[in-house]
Amino acid sequence: MEHTNWYKDAVIYQIYPRSFCDRNGDGVGDIPGIISKLDYLKDLGVNCVWLSPVYDSPQEDNGYDIANYRDIYKPFGTLKDFTMMLDEMHKRGIRLVMDLVVNHTSSEHEWFKSAISDKNSPYRDYYIIRKGKGKNGKKPPNNWSGFFAESTWERIGESDEWYLHLFAKGQPDLNWENPKVREEVKDILRYWLDMGVDGFRCDVITLISKKQDFKSRFPTLALCGKDAFVMGPRLHEYLHDLYKDVYANYDCMTVGETVLSSLDDAISLVSPEREELDMVFNFDHTDVDNHMGVKWLYRKFKLTNLKKAVRKWQIGLKGKGWNSLFIENHDQRRSVGRFGTDDKEFRVISSKMLSATYFLLQGTPFIYQGQELGMTNGDFESIDDVVDVEAHNVYKLGQSLPILKPFLKKTLMSCNRDNARTPVQWDDSRYAGFSEAKPWLKVNKNKSFINAEAAIKDPDSTYNFFKKIIEFRKGNDVIKNGDYIDLLPRNNSVYAYVRKLADKEVVVISNFTNKRLSCKILKDYKKYNIVLTNYVEKEDDYLKPYETRVLINY
Ligand code: TEU
To answer: Cα Rg for the chain, rounded, in angstroms?
Structure first.
């Protein structure tokens, strides 16, 4: 089947179903809730949805722990609801990309339950089970540490054997060395593709192949052993195998979440001739405000670091692969209030500035639910307001290791993942129109003025700005294929870049500070037409706080 590469013209909206919209009144979002908002999405102008997991799951990690790959988590709805949603999306010209979580299953998956209850189970070798060390194997097989601030090994009952889990205990890693596991994954992919879904966002896909020595590594502060499980030795082989046996037969797309991977890794994954993945999510730009990729270790934001990360990927992938563009997702805190911006006085102005700045880069843009409303971080008062398993593990670690306390004091509340997972604010009613019942996670008080109902009516809202920018992007060849030129790589206040295709240019000039600044570069583009901006009044040589201007010469 010919791949039309439709994703190159897509604007993708990520739905985190638990927090999107609740229609059955249990305080948890659901598929009927999504269906009820499809006209809203259509109106916004997006033409593809990435749906975070809706599969049957005990929800230890909100669905990233799957107990049955072929069924829907009951509180979200049924398979019938799912096919109806898919149908309604397609009717509106919206494609659907599912989340594919196959580095691990849930510990409630039948495979795992069988694997640990019976040594002779045919599913035993579906997982990574090793003998422990020490007397009676009471110590874990090695010192690897995982993503959720806990050991990566869990002992199987009182036995001398342990299973590997790079994430929570309830997320045992699959053993991809076993060809049966790979065949199972292919069957799962076909099941959903045959139903009509259009592609997959492949969760932590760069972790599926592990070095088989399983030896301890030199101890490190975070992710000890990562050389053994990031970009493992058989990753390319596994991905190409999936491509050849499955993706090649459907006009689908894949985007891989590639934690801790370099630009060269990415090139090796997305170069079309290799037939592995279509795009990857890299995190260089979201790591600019932390140390060593650990978000809890906050580092002051510097615009030049952001530009450096963007430059690296915009230029590095040019002609070799396709970029994905995002500044928010369900694991990141909200963008407004981040990257040097302000989520109070200049909230609307700065959210528009951020969107113009990332949306017109080369690649496929993603919008995370609520980002189009300029939604802010949660207004949590204490850890008791937070649900996320990762945050709770980190909190516990902080309690046991006082040395971490000063670091965590600020970041535990401001960087935890629930900041992006508060219920979408549809209106100003008690539970923000998300639900009739008390939601599973606290609604932000600012729903009284940040909500979709108000935003749709207000021509100056972030929402209406997004609509314009999506419209401007549509079919624009300069945005799709033009070169990227960073005009002020060393400037820490103004982000200015050109997209250029033959003699056509799109120029974006954004002030990343809360000050009115003189900006010489504006002179060079005096004759260009302003197509988008977040202020009505403009000065020739000055940019207002968080001002952005998008200019064209054609
Ligand atoms: O995330 C993978 C990942 O490594 C990080 O983004 C991580 O979740 C966290 O932010 C570390 O601080 C993916 C999913 O996006 C995430 O929601 C899941 O929890 C995780 O995989 C496990 O499936």
So the answer is: 23
Per the CB < 8 A criterion, the answer to whether 177 and 212 are in contact is yes
* CB distance 300 to 321 below 8 Å: no
Dump pLDDT digits (tens) for 321-347.
999 999 999 999 999 999 999 999 999
Q: Tell me which residue has its CA closest to atom 23 in ligand 1.
A: 64
> Quick one: tokens of 42?
């259509």
HSE toward the beta carbon, residue 533, CA cutoff 13 A: 18
**DSSP alpha helices (H): ranges in 196-231?**
226-229
Pocket test for ligand 1, best of 14, 62, 147 (most atoms within 8 A of CB): 147
Q: What does the alpha-carbon distance between residue 227 and residue 206 come to, in Å, rounded to a whole number?
A: 11
Distance CA 182, CA 20 (A): 32
- 69: tokens are 């790959």
Q: Cα(506)–Cα(484) distance, rounded to whole angstroms?
A: 10
Q: Which amino acid is at 299?
A: R
CB of 422 closer than 8 Å to CB of 435:
no
Contact 232, 239 (CB under 8 A): no
Which of 54, 97, 167, 280 maximizes ligand 1 atoms within 8 Å of its Cβ, making it the mutation to test the pocket? 167
> For this structure, is 203 an active site residue?
yes
Residue 520 burial by CB count (10 A; 0-12/13-18/19+): exposed, middle or buried?
A: exposed
Q: pLDDT of 408-431, one tens digit each? A: 878 999 999 999 999 999 999 999
Predicted confidence at residue 406, as pLDDT, reads 82
Q: Which residues of 157-191 are buried (b: 16+ CB within 10 A; e: fewer)?
A: eeebbbbbbbbbbbbbbbbbebeebbebbeebbee
554 CB neighbour count, 10 Å cutoff: 11
DSSP state of 416: S
Please state the separation of Cα 149 from the chain's center in Å: 20
Rounded to whole angstroms, how far apart are CA atoms 538 and 549? 10
**Rounded CA gap, 261 and 321, in Å?**
15
Q: Is the CB of 208 under 6 A from ligand 1?
A: no
pLDDT of residue 222: 84
For the stretch 168-223, pLDDT in tens is: 999 999 999 999 999 999 999 999 999 999 999 999 999 999 999 999 999 988 89
Q: What is the pLDDT of residues 487-498, one digit of tens each?
A: 999 999 999 999
Q: Torsion angle of alpha carbons 100, 359, 414, 99, nearest 10°?
A: -10
Are 149 and 397 in contact by the 8 Å Cβ rule? The answer is: yes
Sign of the torsion angle spanned by Cα atoms 280, 286, 291, 294: negative
